[in-house]
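Changelog-adjacent note: as of this version, every example in the card shows the full chain rather than a window. The one below runs 639 residues end to end.
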Amino acid sequence: MKASTTRLFCVLLCFLCSIGTFAQSGITVIGTVIDETETPLPGANVIVVKNKKMVRGTTTNIDGKFKLTVLFEENDEREISISYVGSKAKTIKLTKENIMKPFNVQLFPDDEMLEEVTIVEDGYARLPRKDMVGAFTTVKADDIMMPAYQSIDQMLQGKIAGMSVVNTSARVGSSPKITIRGTSTILGNTSPLWVVDGVIQEDPLSIDISAALTSDMKELIGNQISWLNPQDIDNITVLKDASATAIYGSKASNGVIVITTKKGTPGRISVNYNTNVSARQRPTYELYDFMNSYERIQFSKEAYEAGVRYQSEPLPQIYTYEGLMAMFNKRIISEEEFSSYLQRLETVNTDWFELLTRNAVSNNHNLSVSGGTDKYTYNASVGYQINNGYEVGNSNDQITTRLSINSNINDKFSFNAQLNGSIRNSDGYAGVNPYNYAMNTSRAIPAYNIDGSPAYYSKYYTYQYNTLLGGHNQYSYNVFNEMENSYSKNQGTAFNASVNISYKILSWLTYQGTASMAISSNKSESFNGEKSASVEQLYRGFPYGSEKAGSDKYNAALMPYGGVLQQANSQTVSYSTSHRLAFSKEFNENHRLNAMLGMEIRSSKGSSEGNTVWGYVPERGEILVSPTLPENFKPIGSD
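Full-length structure tokens:
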């Protein structure tokens, strides 16, 4: 009896184990996915969904077949979802009746998705992707949108193969340098051509950047699309090779970036408001492998003791190791004073990033209204952006407006009209770059003296009208003094209007016309005050207020008092009109011929004016102090 009971227990145990094994191994589901012509679809996605969550999935093989294991219970609510690019997805509920049978799933084209995926705009025409020639890349603006950036050119960084986007300045308001497939010229312009809704964008007027003042102004002017709000962009197509010159001519030799803006959609009124706030952490020394003040002084000691030659004799001063050694060797300070000053240089560890940069907080606001009917649609938007840069005092703000109206009057005639406007303000410095200063200045140099006053360290320079001293003139420099006594700012305004019409003459022949007008202007201003080191080096030749009227140095100064204000105003007015006949005809459903015949007339007129105000003193009621008169001007050391 005991043996029979044992055998029965073993049989039951084996039966339970077999049930558990079957439950864990699940049921294998097989099937085939075909398209509307019953052609197998390789690469179709097949996933099992439970409670709207993906459980497991696979893809079809080259024959359109799939196989996956499903853990299925009788009361389970599981579904199998099949999808393929350009086709409408299909969902099938799993039941105990169908789960054991092969699935034969047929997917049909999704016309809206196909149009979105395959249509490409090159600025002149909308063509199926398979009809495009040459190298190109298309991206949706929503896929590259980054709240931390203000302009679309910065957002393209790292998004397009073959396109290099390099930020040439840490200041907000400046434009990056873009090259497509390398540099095409050594001396010429390497910037790509920008096209917005079929209209070529003109380059901003260039200004003379031979002086440090105007180079700071140029950084803030922006580029061809600085007026465009990224929130208004629908998609971007980059034409990369020489085939683009067949459309745009030699201007496309550096590549073409085609931007298509958003249009209205039929339906009830849609009001959208979006805002974002982004913060970028200030740079810190933890991000770089820089020497601290102790390491910098030890390096100077080793170089000095090794007998390294200096380009010029070190200036006696307490702010550098070489300067302290010069003071000690000349018996200007005692050994105890030398040790005290040296100890401070070794331990001061000035955090220039903390003093000259900040955590940059920026925010964007955009309000858009769209709607319409089957015949008329509209899209209007207003945007406001304010960006603060890393550098203390560097900021940029912009207001943009846009109105787009589309009309399909009948099956043959349609038109689109657009109005765009923007006002852009940028602020920075002239002759001083706080971020670069923090990156390149020794931490052993103190920003302030022990008593809290600003620390001015000395440097050599050459004043062109005092050749007697040669390169041994000395000036005192403090970065905070330069920032306080200089500024650079720019205001840019832009207005654009364009009209596009299309008339279908025949089913295979369409007339397309475009007319546009654009007005842009920039007002730039750059200033260096009388107390700045740059004015001392270029126009005075001695420290501010150190010479009396009538002295030799005073008479050799171009400008004994007052600063330099440089202003530049530019305006560009452009018109363009183009007329095209687009031919597209299919033959025997297997062949299609696309051709275009067109002409374009473009006119651009630019004007600019600049002036330099000598002796400008804004802190004393914006007065002008007269420079040295020619009859009183007497250079030192010249014949």
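Structural remarks: The chain is about 20% helix and 40% strand.
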